[in-house]
């Protein structure tokens, strides 16, 4: 009789486990990965080329980034979007904020970026407010989303 009860107990445990696994699977299927609650806010970016093409239009490159997670310089680098003028390619500081060669102009969406840093205030004091150092510019604040339009190498427009 003890053996039978042992078998019944094991059988019952298996049934209860199967019910638990089944209930857990049902609960998990309701929480699909990538549901709206899991999604982090995104910032869309448009990068306008520094010089017009032969048709007179400026080239546009696009990228997306999770809000508040990356510097503008890193987004451009990750997406292979040219940031530096000729001399800046060999003479930049690698994102340390000590050279001023990663200048961009924010044409739209400045409210989606961090405030100018002290480094930017020092390097850009004689330039328009819309000019930023890509290595100092955080895209988003982890909560906002929207679109930022960036003019690459704005000093070539003069």
Automatic annotation (TrEMBL):
Keywords: 2Fe-2S, Iron, Iron-sulfur, Metal-binding. The lineage of its organism: Eukaryota, Viridiplantae, Streptophyta, Embryophyta, Tracheophyta. Belongs to the adrenodoxin/putidaredoxin family. PANTHER family: FERREDOXIN-2, MITOCHONDRIAL, FERREDOXIN/ADRENODOXIN. One of its GO terms (biological process) is P450-containing electron transport chain. GO terms for molecular function: 2 iron, 2 sulfur cluster binding; electron transfer activity; metal ion binding. Residues 91-139 form the 2Fe-2S ferredoxin-type domain. Coiled coil: none annotated. SUPFAM superfamilies: 2Fe-2S ferredoxin-like (SSF54292). This is 2Fe-2S ferredoxin-type domain-containing protein. Its cofactor is [2Fe-2S] cluster. InterPro entries: 2Fe-2S_ferredoxin-like_sf, 2Fe-2S_ferredoxin-type, Adrenodoxin-like, Beta-grasp_dom_sf. GO terms for cellular component: mitochondrion. It comes from Salix viminalis (Common osier).
């Amino acid at each position: 009789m003890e053996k039978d009860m042992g078998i019944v107990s094991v059988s019952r445990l298996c049934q209860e486990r199967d019910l638990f696994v089944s209930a857990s699977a049902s609960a998990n299927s309701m929480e699909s990965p990538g549901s709206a609650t899991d999604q982090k806010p995104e910032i869309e970016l448009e990068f306008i080329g520094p010089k017009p093409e032969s048709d007179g239009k400026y080239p546009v490159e696009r990228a997306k980034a999770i809000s508040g997670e990356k510097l503008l310089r890193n987004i451009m680098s990750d997406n292979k979007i040219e940031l530096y003028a000729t001399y800046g390619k060999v003479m930049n500081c690698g994102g340390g904020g000590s050279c001023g060669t990663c200048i961009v102009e924010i044409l739209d969406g400045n409210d989606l970026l961090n405030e100018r840093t002290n480094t930017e205030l020092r390097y850009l004091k004689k330039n328009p407010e819309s000019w930023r150092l890509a290595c100092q510019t955080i895209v988003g604040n982890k909560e906002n989303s929207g679109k930022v339009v960036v003019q690459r190498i704005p000093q070539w427009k003069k």
